[in-house]
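Dear colleague,

Thank you for sharing your sequence with our group. We've completed the structure prediction you requested, and as agreed, I am returning the results in plain text so they can be pasted directly into your records. Please verify that the sequence below matches your submission; if there's any discrepancy, let me know and we will rerun it promptly.
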Amino acid sequence: MLFTGLFLLGITQVSQAQTQINNSGFEDWENVGSATEEPLEWNSFKTASGSLIAFASQQIKRSSVVRPGSSGSYSCLIWSKAINIGVVIVANGNVTTGQINMGSSTATDPSNYNITHTSQPAFSEPLGVLPDSISFWVRFKPSNASGTDSGRMRAVIHDTYDYRDPNTSDVNAASHLVAEATKHFATTNDQWVRYSTPFYSGPASSPDYILVTFTTNKLQGGGSGGDSLYIDDMSLIYNGAGISNIDKSENFFAYTDANNLNINLVLDKPTTSEIAVYNIFGQLVYKTQINAQTIKHQIGMDQFNSGIYIVSVITGDNQRYSQKISVK
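Please find the predicted structure tokens below.
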């Protein structure tokens, strides 16, 4: 019984130690009430760089509009704005853990991007671990009558490199990508909606930093002046560490035999599913993708040491299944 208690205590400690993005609930702000108001650890146009910073305007503020059930008091509100710089352009609302670079009046010009400056703590977000997915709450309202525009969240995990989003002008960026997650979302009809999207792996392996960006439109310069986006309660999800919160389904079953770890899952329709296996410390030890409606996947037992593991499956339509197994 003593061993069991210590083991469960260890699980709880691992779960509580999950790394999160600083000020992910947007509770802490500086210069509130002024044109330079920003959430701590985040940046907008007022702290931008580039040749057009003279045209930077306030497009962010602290809001007391929070999602139902939130334990916090504030959210982040960003909005788009029509700006006259000789020609009228739409500047999307933009908030990032890096720094905005305003390099051109042409929205799609490669000199317009957000960037992690790894040497500058004010414009970088160290990470050091690899989460499984990212979740967040938003309340999005496009100003056009049809409401067809989409907001955007993009999170890029990368090694020690000054990574840009978008990175169209940087041919070396792709080799520094560890994982990425992107979510486009339509109008939420004046309601708060929670979204969650998985990280997909890149070629790099050292998750040193994360660059997170929220914008009022998925396209640079897209949308209309007055699009508004509230953001709140963002969270990095580590399926491997959540051993006390295992999702179960009669359609999902994982087990071991003498030779293999066997994973069986029956879905409603064919889709691409991501299979991942984590050890007791939340570290990823195996990952693959399978496109099928019925999954019968085997992993050789020679890939695992003795211990407790979590088998996780995330489907293309964001259904999640997980099960704890023991390898002896």
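Summary note from our side: The first strand starts at residue 29 and ends at 30.

Kind regards,
the structure core
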